[in-house]
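Retro notes
What went well: the complex prediction finally ran end to end.
Inputs used:
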Amino acid sequence: MTGAWGVSKQTLASSARDLMCDPVDILIVAGTWDVRCLSMVEVQWERPVPRVLLVKYANSGKSGRARSYTELLLEHFSAESSARVSDISIDSSNLVAAWSDMKAAVLDAYVEVGRPIRIGLDITSVPRYVWLNLLGYAAETGVIAGFEFVYTAAHEYEYVDGPRIFSDGVWKPRAIATLGRGAQPSAESLLVVSGGFEGANTLRLVNALEPDRVLVALSSSQSIEHDRDARRANAPLAQEYGLAGEVIEFPLSDVSTSVANLDRALGALERGPSRELAISFLLCGSKISALVIGLYAIRRDIAQIYFSDPQFRLETTASSIEWITCVSVNL
Amino acid sequence: MTSADSLRLFDDRWEQDRLAHSYYLNTDAYSRLSGLAKHIVLKGHRGTGKTTLLRALDWRERLYNEHLGRALGVDPFADRVIGCFLQIKLLPVDMMDIWTRSSNDQVKHIVIATYLRATWLLEVCAALRGIELKRGLGKYEDQVEDLGPSARLTWEWLPARLKLAPGLSDDILTIRDIEAVARALLTRIRDAAAVESPLPETLIAELNLLEFPTIVDSLFRSLAAYASRLDNGGSWSFRICMDEGEFLSDSWANSVRTLIRETDSPVYLAVSVLHSLGSETRAQGASISIDDREIVDLDDRTPEQMITMLNGILQARLNLLGQGSSFDLKGFLGDPSVDDLLRVAVGKSESKTVLSRRHELMNQEHPVRSHLQAIGAVPTASVKERRVESTGYRKKKVAGYLNLLGSLGVDRPVFAGWRIAVNMADNSVRDFIRFLRYALGGWTRDREEPRSDTVWRFLAQSRLDLAYQDEALNSLGLSKLEAMPNTVIRPNETRALVLLLGEVSHRTDFYSKSLKQPNATRLLLPIVRDGLAYSDGDSRLIMLLEEAASYGYISELDVGKDRVSCRVNRSFARYLGFSYWKPQYSNPISTSALRSALANPGGSPSTWLREPKPRRTDAHVQQSFSFGGEDWLLS
């Protein structure tokens, strides 16, 4: 670890037990219906983790997997004599309250440790809205010294609720409170859309936000099929906003390069005379793309980050794992 | 000029391209916006031109958009109005709502109103500096003189937490000082809201925000005095244009309404909304009224106003593209009579009834009038009366045309002509531009990309063939239906709703036995309030209707205490087959049809409207499944 501000290191492994992460003061994990949440029991830490915060979801799905995975996580971390395990319950339909509870738990840990803390966090399983707020809060307050963000990429998915989708019902844009400095509302609005597999919902949100300009960012993973599906899903958006192949690429296994690509693309934008450019983001893509945007946002003056909050989350799990990564961030 | 440039003539989102955007300002709405010393609520569904109107007041557009400059004349600020265009969606609405969620209404209002007032100050200062830079305004001494009356008040109020101080003395205040104060205030509020510390109540005390409105009033008066140097002493005002009111949360909308009551000369607000801004304010019992603000309703323009504006817009676009030649939509589209349209419809129909009556209908001088007389809808007129259209005939001729088509077994009308096209655009500039684009597509047979000369040849025709117009008007409805998944949240249900309401409109227009109540296309929905609230199902239906209205799928939505009514947007009139005329009578929709459509949105209108067999022959039950008390000739 270099101590420099920003992404200091990214480690990649094909299996969780081969992934070694830097020491943390508290590890935040969550029991979900996706088997990827169990990666956290195999990840190696340079020093024993002293505190574990286990997030339990109110909506545990139909299959019973979320409940059993939560119990497995609790069992594993309780068995480690050095770790003190506490938990919070989260209702994903009330994310504002979830963020409030998470902040209180992190502040408790900070008070206990007595210095800015390092947090290990499973971004695959903890709600994006919560950990992005935590990232913004960290950048604003100095309570948090850094993060070890762990992400497990799926090779294939298994859909419990039917078709190949992750959500149902109304998608609402919800601004991440701690990221985004707002903008003078006379500015020209640019919306950078991090696209995923649910293109129709994405296009609807973009149309509702009516930006002056649109840019699309898509992740490139090691799965050609995933990349092709995402491009296909977002083709109507590109067509409607006349984006002839202008896509910002986020190589998922390289967060630093993704942030640099974003920086370069936005730095090269033409700006009109005397009018500011208000850059906002819409998160409809992968969680690691959300991390890239979050890391960009804490370094730059951006207006808003909109998280697309679905009305219903459908039960989905990875049927096989592609890779796992740990991104070390210093603040 | 490239082909792409010429095609921009029919670009329905050209207004998004700020600097190259054309303007046509000779409209009543613009005159009221720039001329009235009053707050304005600008109402209209998407595509009616709200954003374009507000941008035409924006100081940046006035300074830098040459086309707007030309449209305004020699002096872009001749109306002594400095407009500031603000996008509500860029305000930190969610962030502030989360921070103030446990506070009372008064605290919420103080915080939100402070944020808005500081934003306005910052923007007005930017405007004055921008004008100064581009065309000169005043010297430093002038600023000191004009802003002097506010200097001491401002510096004495200035909270220590903002860490600002007067440069030389507290009698001197400059535009840069005001910007610094406004910016520091905004930053402090945003920082507090982001991390939810301190509490809003603490921040209000820390920044002494209760006194801020008095400071702002004084500052705006001083800034207006400085602005008056532009024409040596006239009375200047600032028009704060806040676009996209649909992004306001309940708390913010309440604050904006309260600010309409609290804000006075020289600051006037213009807020654009899809439906309504509402009327309640923070003060109990104090609603905003006509005395506080004027409503400019872009959903309510006459065909003559629309065609004049559309001609102006197209002419402005042609001028911007370097084509000075004059263009007249009335001449280009013509104004065929319903008899002319009937002959085209009869000419292309192959229904047996039409074949048997084609010769008769083609040779009758007034087949629609004859039909109306035959069914007793208008009296048989004398020869003298026939020379001029009687009032009764004028009111029923469109209904008579559609009813005659229905009786001939023709289930879709032929529509063409400027009057019909304008009525079908239903106040949407965007929809009319799309209609022209579809007409060009049909005329060029949808070749990949028409060249510039194709576009000019298209426009150079003395009259566009009725068949291309009809086809384009059909495409207008079809394309809107197809685009629903890209706009509304529940496209399947919205589509089903529009198809159901469209089918009921179609049946009433085409198959009514008599025309005692023509144009009964105002639809009454079976939504009733149980006490003070709607049922969950009805609340969801109202949300669906409001969203459909905002995107121009339905119109004239009226959610009243005792009834909910609407009509289908006329852009669907050709595709779904109903009148382009305004509704004259109402028609109830049955609960069973509505439920059936929403429960089975993939079905068809005929299945939703199929009457379930009543369990008993009860007159009351029978009545609930009929439409408008009419008899139906169901095909």
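What we learned: The interface with chain B takes residues 96, 100, 103, 136-137, 140-141, 170-171, 174-175, 177-178, 180-189, 200, 203-204, 207-210, 212, 236, 240, 272-275, 278, 280, 303-304 of chain A (CB under 8 Å).
What to try next: split runs per interface for comparison.
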